[in-house]
Amino acid sequence: MLLITEPHNSISLILSSQQFSINMSSSELLHFFVFFLSTAQALLRYLLACLFQLNRASVLFFVVDAVFSVYFWFCGLTSLTVDLDDRTTMHFWTSTHRRFDKPNLVMVHGYGGDARWQFLYQVGFLSRKFNLYVPDLLFFGKSYSNRPDRTEEFQAGCLVEGLKRLGVDRFSAYSISYGGYVAYRMAEICPKEMMEKLVIVSSGVGWSDEVKIEQIKKIGRDPKELLLPTNPDDLRLLVKLSVYKGKPLKWLPDFFLQEFINVMGNNHRKEKLELLEHLLSKKADADLPILTQETLLIWGDKDNVFPVYLAHQLQRHLGPKSRVEIIKDTGHAANIESPDAVNALITSFVLGHS
């Protein structure tokens, strides 16, 4: 019995000791885990508080900006960057799968945000009809050059070269506002076999020095302050001048608008200002070329930036290969106010439908 009992008691003591040891280890481990979890939670709470209080505008803006990029991807577009040389880079959104039964359409944006923010209401529809090439003009979005040239001719030359690098040898172009100046010069340097048709929406191409001065006086503000706003009030005023119907920025808080200015407006602000100074100071082109391409001019009848009579004036200059289409109850930003009407006009014109 003794031989049996003693080992049993020893085993019991050993098991009790091991159980106590295990219990002690589990307790220490639990305390360590609780301490680690509490510390991590406190740090996370602190970081979130800082993020919300100090950078909430940045977070909201970049979320919206990312959503726009995802939407472009959902519409079948891919982001590409083309180095033209060691000093100039152009960024494009291009159709991921180019189809040879679709014509190519280049979409040239105006002042404001980059191409995504200006063509958001159009790429969904137009991507079903065309192979799209949507560039950021130099100093907008991801396009940049450290060359000193600020002319529309330089922008046009870089854009045409970028398209060549992408293998685009035939295309039509749709342009708005400042983009109209650039696209007009593209049509000038491209043979008709390369650039087939041109659409210009609400652009001051061909306006005289007198009309320019008159419009600046009518607006009552320095155009550079409006087109490159530094505060939410100026941005709202710019949108009010551009849009006839509704108030697109009514529900957007100031901190979000300020972040839009900080990211979009202040990105390459110096170069954008130089683009504007060149455009406003240059004399009217007395020898504005008459284009060989068929040209469609689309205008809102309530355009307060470039009055509708400029459309008819440009049409008379271009002659029988051009025509004017006026959209009712629409201001300068026809691409935002009346995208369906603009899309339908572009499609019927480029595809040759009546």
TrEMBL record:
Residues 105-344 form the AB hydrolase-1 domain. InterPro entries: AB_hydrolase_1, AB_hydrolase_fold, Meta-cleavage_hydrolase. The keyword Ligase does not apply. The chain crosses the membrane at residues 29-48, 60-82. Keywords: Membrane, Transmembrane, Transmembrane helix. It comes from the Eukaryota. The keyword Secreted does not apply. This is AB hydrolase-1 domain-containing protein. The lineage of its organism: Eukaryota, Viridiplantae, Streptophyta, Embryophyta, Tracheophyta.
